[in-house]
């Protein structure tokens, strides 16, 4: 499982330097339609569907529920950390960083691309000499 957003390198169940990232799907048809209406379909790697997963990096921090609060019979509140984070019903992916460090670049392909550009830059085209002597 990986984040559906083009260029995002988040993989489900994997820890990176910042820790494990959660992936979310649209739980309801209404949520799916809201995401599509927000233009999410243009940001992905293939057709967006109910099974497409989007990582937590693309949501506002307050869109993700990480704790549940319960009101006890005696009026006290108990806060419990959720094992699996949950999106609020009105949450819509809205964070799409444009920083280069956010996007994955394969260093091997990057080096090959530089070599190709250097070769193209060093090519000199000989112009025929049409001057008659």
Automatic annotation (TrEMBL):
It holds the Pfam family THAP. This is THAP-type domain-containing protein. One of its GO terms (molecular function) is DNA binding. The keyword DNA-binding applies. It comes from the Eukaryota. Residues 110-119 have a biased composition (Basic and acidic residues). It comes from Trachymyrmex cornetzi. InterPro entries: THAP_Znf. Keywords: DNA-binding, Metal-binding, Zinc, Zinc-finger. Residues 110-133 are annotated as: Disordered. Residues 1-96 form the THAP-type domain.
